TrEMBL record:
It comes from Butyrivibrio fibrisolvens DSM 3071. Pfam families: Metallophos_2 (PF12850). GO terms for molecular function: hydrolase activity; metal ion binding. The keyword Nucleotide-binding does not apply. It is an enzyme of class 3 (hydrolase). Its cofactor is a divalent metal cation. This is Phosphoesterase. Residues 3-156 form the Calcineurin-like phosphoesterase domain. InterPro entries: Calcineurin-like_PHP_lpxH, Metallo-depent_PP-like, Phosphodiesterase_MJ0936/Vps29. The keyword GTP-binding does not apply. Belongs to the metallophosphoesterase superfamily. YfcE family. Its EC number is 3.1.4.-. Keywords: Metal-binding.
Amino acid sequence: MIKAIVFSDSHGQQAYMKQKIKDESPFDVLIHAGDLEDTLEGVLGPVDYHTHIVKGNCDYGRDVPLEKIFKLGGRTVLLLHGHSCNNTHCHPGMDMNRMVYYAQSKGCDMLIYGHTHIPHYEVLDDGFIILNPGSISLPRQSDMKKMYAVLEVEDKEVTVTHKSYEN
């Protein structure tokens, strides 16, 4: 079993993320879907788990990729912020079909994205998983809760739990 914690859109307000990292420990993988506005090393220091991070539209000058493909258990994940799909602007009203098609064209069966600050989780008919953890610092959904996601992965089986900063 792999446990992953997924953040996005912390926008330089790292205290919430740091607290949830402590609360969720131990875990195997930390994923950040962009707009960290810092470096993970600067925020966390040395860590004993895997990290995956991509550049968001507010991560000016950060030396991280716009997208990243990696294995998570038996899943192949495309991680991107969502403001850019194959160098084509996808917001406002992000073109989800286009992002899913792009991920599938790269051989992925899971998409993790950010940018909207709104949590989203969906499993398509073919088993493809779409996940946005929401924002850990600047939420935009109606309840305005600071959100992140915890994944438990066993081969291709993925359990996704959205959590708020309060729990």
